[in-house]
Amino acid sequence: MTVTSMMRQILLRRRPVGLPGPDDFDLVETPIPDVPDGEVLRRTIYLSLDPYMRGRMSDAPSYATPVAIGQPIVGHTVSQVVASNNPEFAPGDVVAGYDGWREYAVSKGTDLRKLNPVAPPISTALGVLGMPGMTAYVGLLDIGQPKAGETVVVSAASGAVGSIVGQIARINGCRAVGVAGSAEKCAYVVDELGFDACVNYKAGDFRAQLAATCPNGIDIYFENVGGAVFRAVLTLLNQNARIPLCGLIADYNATEPERGPNLRPLLVKRAMIKGFIVSDYRERTPDFLRDCSTWLFEGRLKYREDIVDGLENAPAALLKLFDGTNFGKLIVRVSPDPTRQ
Ligand SMILES: NC(=O)c1ccc[n+]([C@@H]2O[C@H](COP(=O)([O-])OP(=O)(O)OC[C@H]3O[C@@H](n4cnc5c(N)ncnc54)[C@H](OP(=O)(O)O)[C@@H]3O)[C@@H](O)[C@H]2O)c1
User: Could you tell which of 225, 243, 258, 329 is best to mutate to test the pocket of ligand 1, judged by most ligand atoms within 8 Å of the CB?
Assistant: First the structure.
């Protein structure tokens, strides 16, 4: 295994206003760190790009600490061990971690999880079998409490979280209705993922289209986007509806607060809305990995990846999440995947 002496990483130069641009980041070369006693050095293969990264670039009050100016952007990674002074890890091991936007990282390894290099594909540790899949699993099952026969609507339905929400809803005997931003995405959601229906919120007259698609109303709305989609969904809720409030991506780059929805239907329909952060549910990880690995193996869970090559392309690629041009779990291939050659 060749190890060069320098590595690249992407640092936060300044806090973006609105959509992040190239001037908000610095691509720098630094020496690859030494490997102290008890530590493990790995090379990044895949870097996950996720909407929460926009929040970490801001110092507005949040549930998580912001990235400091001059520090690498954080992010989940899949890497290969290249040198180890820790008996738990050997060169060649493939691991999932949280190494951020850089080509190499060193640590004691307590933050690493070893992956099977044979199957499933190692990149699934960033999507269907990673943080987004876990978000779908606990958000729908623990908060949404789906019951067979209910109607579950999920926004950003072709994306990393939404695609899994609808499939788990179906596995639980629910009717799954997606909301997505193009006819192509809607066709994928229905034809490939097996949702019962999908409504393109950009096609016009969204509320009427959704009402026609949900003749029995909406029992669970898995909220990923906020904004106009949320306003329309609220008016179609059933009695005792539940709303796992997972994300509000329509607001993440807003420079002015979005006009709020009318919350009156929540009162009248005795609906339950609950915000959640996936890291609150760590104790559910073994259940998530057991169930979703089984469903994946059985072909009951499908996923799609949108892979961009080159660490230097991470800042521009991140924007795909906010204009909807990503189609599936957005991942940067930082170095060749040795398990897919
Ligand atoms: N609470 C938690 O712990 C947690 C954990 C993970 C993710 N999340 C949240 O889950 C949501 C989905 O994340 P993901 O990783 O699965 O991303 P993703 O769905 O793979 O990609 C983001 C998608 O959001 C949609 N979108 C972007 N701007 C929008 C807008 N203004 N209005 C409506 N839709 C818009 C786009 O799809 P269309 O083309 O269909 O519009 C885009 O493809 C995000 O809000 C994220 O912050 C929360």
Answer: 225
**Distance between Cα 226 and ligand 1 center (Å):** 10
Q: How confident is the model at residue 260 (pLDDT cuts 50, 70, 90)?
A: confident
CA angle centred on 67, ends 24 and 13, rounded to 5°: 25
- Closest C-alpha to 269, from 205, 220, 206, 210: 220
159 lines ligand 1 (CB under 6 A): yes
Going by C-alpha positions, the residue among 137, 201, 202 that lies closest to residue 163 is 137
CA nearest to 21, candidates 49, 60, 57 = 57
The Å distance, Cα 211 to ligand 1 centre, comes to 22
Q: Is 178 in the pocket of ligand 1 (CB under 6 A)?
A: no
Report residue 104 CA to chain centroid gap: 22
Compute the distance between CA of residue 156 and CA of residue 133 in angstroms, rounded to an integer. Answer: 14
Give CA–CA dist 209/237, Å, rounded.
Answer: 15
Per-residue DSSP letter, 224: S
Residue 1's pLDDT band, with cuts at 50, 70 and 90, is very low
- 247 touches ligand 1 (CB under 6 Å): yes
Contact between 9 and 104 under an 8 Å Cβ cutoff? The reply is: no
Atom of ligand 1 nearest to the CA of 247: 45
Residues facing 27 on adjacent strands: 10
| pLDDT tens figures, 275-325 | 999 999 999 999 999 999 999 999 999 999 999 999 999 999 999 999 999
**pTM, full prediction:** 0.96
User: Residue 49, SS3?
Assistant: coil
For residue 276 and ligand 1, the question of a CB distance below 6 A is answered with yes
CB of 278 closer than 6 angstroms to any ligand 1 atom = yes
